[in-house]
Protein 1
Amino acid sequence: MNFIYDLHRTVMSQNLILVYGGDFTQETTKSILALAEHNLDSSGENSAIKRRVFNIMVEALQNIVKHGSDQGTLAGPLVSKGAIFMISKNDSGYCVLTGNPIPKGDVARLTGNLNDLNSKDKESLKEMRKETMKNTQISEKGGAGLGFVDMKRKSGKKLEFAFSDKDAEYDFFCLKVNVSREKD
Amino acid sequence: MMEILNLKGTDDTPAVLLDKQNGIFEISGRSLPENAAEFYKPVIEWINAYASDSNSSTELAIKLEYFNTASSKLILDVLSALEEVKGIKVLWYFHDDDEDMEEAGQEFSELVRIPFELKVY
């Protein structure tokens, strides 16, 4: 039973205001959003930062659902298993934190994409977004390929990420998106 | 006579009202469906049908509180479909403290060839 207290201590020491683990679907996404919105509203958070946190949460959660699901939207609602979603709050703002398994074969491409995004300034992100909107089609999982671009724009900070070795087939992808009250 | 397209808003889809007879064209609320392409399909189909027999002028009010990136792609498809409507104008509404929504309206206006008016509400 010790893990309960250990987990509680981690939640307290990391200033986590919301932790969800397990299966992710559009339905759980909506519930998590409602819970987080309630939390931000009741703490009297200003609407600009609230909107940015909400925005990043939606993209992070829908990324997990889309990329963690084995099937496309034609086969019915998407389900992503074995991921984790957290929000922490500190004096300077919020962090949206996610963890989910990804196939080892996808690690290099994802790392490249995220490093590329992190090297771009506000103007080039805007151009990238416009180009992608004009030229790409919605994927079979319903994505526009703009989730990380939007997270980077709304955050204004670098997207922090790391991979842990999970098993022979999968790594565990950890992402931290900072939302500061002081926008850069 | 064209049918009215009236979709009630939900917690992840916007309210849509497209009513030729009364000259009311509005999309409002939140747009973060899992399958944005499926949600916007009837909207785009309605606009395509309307384009061939439209009123002399049409103002579409877009009052979105929030939309996800998949929806942004589909909103661009909606706006592209509107390029075929004669006398079209888009009224893009945003809250005065919502810079991101104002910027989104600005960006969409740069991507399509239709007049945009950005309005605070």
Note: The domain at 2-180 of chain A is CATH 3.30.565.10 (Heat Shock Protein 90).
Protein 2
Amino acid sequence: MPSWVVFILLVLPIVAALAIFALERLRPNFGLAWLIAMLAAVGGWGLLLALGLRNPAPLQLADWLPIQVRLDDRLLLQVDPVSWPLAFSLAALLLAVILTAPVRLGQKSIPVAWASNLFITSIGLMGVLSGNLVTLLLVWSLIDVVELIVMLRTVQEPRLNRQVILAFAARVSGTIVALAALVVDQDAAGSGAPNAFPQANVLLLLAAGLRLGVLPLNLPYQQEIRMRRGVGTLLRMVSTATSLVLLARLSPIEVTAGGGALLLVASAIAALYAAAMWASAANELDGRPYWIISLAGMALISVVNGNPLNSLAWSTLMILCGGVLFLYSGRARFSIVLPILAAAALSGLPFTPAAYGWPGVVDESFTVFDLALVLIPALLMFGMIRHAMTPGDALKDMQGWIRVAYPLGLFMLVASAWLIVFLGAGQTLIVGPWAVSLASSLVAAGMLFAAHRWRSTAHENRRFEWIRSLFRVIGKWLTSVLSLRWLYVLFNDFMKAVHWLVEGFSVILEGEGGVLWVLVLLALLLTLLLPEGLR
Amino acid sequence: MSTVTFWIFVPFGVSILLVLFNRFIRITRWIAAGVTLGLALAAAFVNFDELVLLGGRAYELSTSFSVLGRQLVLNSNDRFFLVLVYGLGAFWFLGAPAAGTHRLFAPLGLAIIAILVASLAVEPFLYAAPLVELAVLVSIPMLVAPGRPAGQGVLRYLIFMTLGMPFILLGGWALNAIEINPANDTLLLEAMLLLGLGLAFWLAILPFYTWLPLLSGESQPYNAAFLFSLLPTVVFFLMLNFLDAFAFLRNSPVFFQGLQLAGTIMVATAGIWAAFQRDLTRLFGYAVIQETGFALLAISLHSETGLALFAAGLVPRLIGFGLFALSLSVMQSRNVSLRFEDEGLAFWQVPIASLASLVAIFSISGLPLLAGFPVRQPLLEELGAGSIAVAIWALIGSAGMMYGGLRYLSALFRREPTTGQPGEGWYQIALLSAGVVMLFVAGVFPTPMISMMLNVLSGFANLF
């Protein structure tokens, strides 16, 4: 298939977004705007489905620099077994957002928001299809800037502004670490051809980990910022997907035993902590950052274990199963089936999409550490069902076509999760380590049962209130330790000390005696550096 | 007709006239902009080696001019340099009305450009030193607004620049001595040391850069930035001239190691210092130091790629400095404090200027998507091929500058939003927006910019 198909894939949502913007300016028509958005989303999803069957040639936009450098300076976009599952997931999420949008008409779901969704998805597709690190870095920055602008326009409080800027800073830090990976990677010098993705895998792992908020665990959004469900979900998922694609592209990592263990433990703690926070969150939107961190943690664990391709299973499920729940605003008795199907996809039971993810996380020799890993999907599934069972907007009061489009949109997400394993060259339907996934599912079922039982016998539980209080205290303590806020306070103190030193030097060099100090420094430098004949 | 007359004496003569009529501030700015733009375009399109057709008659351009027994030479090899320097002048003079510069900026700015072009054209090169010193002296009234006392930064600038002159002159004397006695290694080292020190003073290389943050805090940012972009550019070309002319210098590993060490320390210290600044003008000063450091690092690679990266870096640096300085001037002209503590109001009073300064900082720090990145990242990789430690320190410097930008971003959104119209005028908005767009376009599509800049290296035949 020719490479320009990739170009169409990226341009289609942008053209549709521009058409909607123009329509809104010239002759606002709500129905037509939705139809345009829907057609673009269906077109993108269908095209990607076709590209899954037959990958097109890579699209190389240009040799980026006119000089000979060590950098792989092509702007390269490619649909391959690594990028396709993520791109297809994003296309499915966009389709679901547009199909479910009419349900949220009362929550400012307007044509401009749909156009924004199309635009954001196009950037996300660009990111996941990036064929080398330079292209990916450019897209990372674009996403960071777009997210910064969207978030700063959404929030109006200085306290929330600070969270937005901290999140931006964390992402930029990840970008800097990725730049360091390019610098450290000197394999190109040896082989003669630059690498599309550097061999400095640990640095790239850290870069992705920083951007995802997993390595080290960082949660800039202490309080989830209220955004429209569609734009908020897409923005978060797009940003995360572009970091996850890097993980899947890493070649198996070679780290020392100690280093590997440290990375594993750090990722596992972050994932477990986030899963627990997700399960206990007030609602699915408050828990959204934790959902992302937890599944991103599972993807990271796969990579540290040397199975980067298995990370794709967790990554795609994060987008698709998460999408089901985050877009699940209208609720009816029958619609609970959809979150349950999504939870089943995440269970990892034989022939479910997550079954391909489990071998990346646990191996045949089951250890105590793996026991902790079993808890993560269990908590995630428990949280999914728990949040799905809380009351939402009544679906039965809505128009007939909305009642068809809405569940169809959510179903497309679940169906896409299975389609990826059916069609994708990277993933397949497998049995997987069924004992582990079964254990995880049973734990989730047990937790659901216990929670149900606790709620139904609430009036009898008063005498056990002290247990609840005890758990709350322990939970608070664990949260303060595991969230690593203490580490950031220490880091802040260190930066203050450096600041003090820098100020001191500035005062000396720029003060009255500054010129003399400069001459002393010069003398010192000359003494140290000059060859012997000139001293 | 002589190229020297057109590109040195004519602008210098115009600058004298503009000084005489400096009260007509609007007219002087536009005349200076028109003259520089015209000279840049003329240098781009007129071939010095062919007859020039003017009014139906053909004229031959002579490329040299004799003054008191010395030669001023501007030949075809200098064409792209002339385009660069006069284009740079036009860039700054066109922005002067938006920045609200004082009445001496345009006349003296034009004079400085003409003198610095003369410093590159003069043969023997030894006489470049007094010409650079002359440009420095002329720049003092430009940096200190009429009627104001000179601050410590300006005085230090004058001291260090003046100290540079004797070192260059002595270096030139040593070079002459080497021609008589080429086997004398000590003389070679002495010449190198003297020239190195002279260039270090002129380029504000460590440890002679303390005046930069001071000066950027004292003078009007736009005037200071004009000088920060012009003077190092010319001095770097003087240095390349030295390297091109003297084989012992370009074959000396010690010289390039010294450049690399100085560049690394400058980039790293400027980045670390920038990370903790609480004043935008000082942050600007450290940005200038860092850019000079990166230019040194590019030249220190001692390769064709290194030189290409040095040339490629000139445009992002120019746009970055211009945008940064213009936004600072706009903020100052609207009485917006440039200290981070008071920046909470800046975004609501002058939103475009405050965002433009932010984009400029990130571009200078080499953030992907902005103009600095396509030059900075390959440079870091080339450095890494030689020494990972040098590359990592340079990256730390870049990260420090980015951290400074993030702190500024945080300061901008510290307050509750207020409503009101943007405080900038339409011309200011147009220039600031154009600057931001240029930084993004050059960041994503750098090829045209870099290809164009590679031409300025055409005069250095021996360097490759």
Note: Residues 313 and 375 of chain B are 6 Å apart (CA to CA).
Protein 3
Amino acid sequence: MSLASLTKPWAATSYGFLDASAKRELRRKMLKAISVPGCQMPYASREVPMARGWGTGGLQVTLTLVNPNSSVKVIDQGADDGVNAASIRRFISRVSGASETWDTLAASIVQSRHRVPEEVMGEDQVLVLQVPNPEPLRGVEPNISVARQMHADADYGKLWLTLYEQIVRKGRIMQGAAYPSMVNGRHVMTPSPIPRWDVPKLNMARHLTFLSAGREKRLFAVPPFTRVEPLVFSDRPYRVEDHADLTCRRSNVSGFFMNELPIDGGGSAFEVSDSNLGIKAIRQAEGAPAEIGKTWYRNGEFSA
Amino acid sequence: MAYVATRGGERAIEQAERLFRQDLGAIDAARVESIQKTMPYLIDRVMGEASLYSEELAALALAQTGGELSEAVLVLRAWRTTQPRIAIARPVQQDELLTQRRISAAFKDIPGGQILGPTLDYSHRVLATDVLEGKPFTPPAVDAAARPAPSRQPSLANWQRQQGLVAPVNVNAVAPEDIPDFTREPLLFPASRAHRLQSLARAETGGVLALGYSAMRGYGNAHPTVNELRLGEAEVVVRHPRGTEFSAGRVRVSQAEVTSKEKGGYLELGFAATFGWNEVKVIAAATLDLNSAEAPVGSAVHEEFYLYHTESVEASGFCIHFKLPHYVTFQSVLDAMRDAKATKAAADITPVETRQTEPAE
């Protein structure tokens, strides 16, 4: 027996880029995050070969989960071919040997910035959301130590107050994306800047969701079958974006979240934001085989 | 099949990177070596912000990023984090430093003497345009002093402690392996002293300067006096598995100690140190440290404020991330705005008289 036979061949970095100590810390924090849904867990957040704010938090979680049998989908604004999504997907497959996919149904891990796919995800899938700002209280309390205490006390009065003030001033809640939501009846989290359209998809979902902010060094989770309730007043129901009646100009699907494209001379055209759903619809229309899974919204109505 | 054809993204990023690299041209060992030899202070700054001491790797990072500093620091940090920690060096003591420059603004002369060392402080900042006219600049030789300065210098603060001017050292017996490591643990607040100083040591020079300067100008509560500023070289003393301690090499370091006023019968000291020679950074950082104790929450000298906002990789990354598409969030905002406007317009057409006339006072 020689020393060489006891060791692995030299490699510039560990499997999946992160070294074992980084992964061990992340796994511990991910398990803690699952144990206390919606509660932010601080982690060291190692540097990765990508700029902070470009999905480094999501990437660290994905690199910790990934194995050679994984199938990884990465989307930015709903699109698989977004430049940063392409860059992240290529990096993950290069360092892990995992296969790449654009199909939500085929993915074991979906890493996403700003969207939850329209097709329902199942219990064997993990959604990893990239989070720019993990602190739902940041707008009312920029100091992170004070905000931490407020979470500990479940002191969300200031947050309710801002929502109330919006109603008084503008006649409705003006919060756009990143709608603050109560998880498991205890911790308010930001669901990351997903549109209001996507928040109901996290409620009592079959899949596990990790939300990870690399720059801010915080991660949190929504385990399967966990309540995620947007903060709303009992007489002012939660309202998703008014996209139910819009139709995609390319794929003709309707009842999904759309991208708006300004048209010369006024008016707007729309394209479905979940780009691979659009591709599947076009393929089906052309008679090619393409399976569209069950979707969270049907005819523009949410029906889990 | 229009959608399917849009794989432009992957091609675009590939070609955009090629364009950047093509503009920089081929990078060879000679280019790296030339950067390393001619730009020692730039190398020092990058090593400090990367918290990785390797002149060669810092020069390589500068070469491959064309001197884009935040990119250079990021590639070094991303490389550093993959490296194992194989040993923990013995803490460096001030009087063990191989000191090349050491000055104090607090006293005219100090035990051990004021050692100016290499500096541009008293130079006239005149651009050497002659060089461009074909007359190379050859620096005049340095005349050796009659008596060489001692290579090691006592700590001024120790003398001040003996005089009862500075509080006694609060000896904190922590095993080296138990010293918190900022690069392997999250920063939490209030930060441990180790985390605060480690974070300042790798902070972005410009960011520390801006916030430190704001404190010096008057947005802090303490105006610094440089008690002691040192540029030197520190031995990296590590322990061999057999138990013997040995020096694995020397690293250039800077450190600053600033003081201001009395507190509890003693002079307060602010401290900062970093890899490489970077005087501006350590003076500004020590000023922030000095001002932290009584800083109002949310002010520029409050620990949480300056540590978060001087983190070079995080700050630069977040700033440039705004170039990424944000059209989903924007659409979400537009939706709420349009609805609010439409509702208001509808209400204006059918006004409901709810205002009550106030009786005149």
Note: The longest helix of chain A spans residues 20-35.
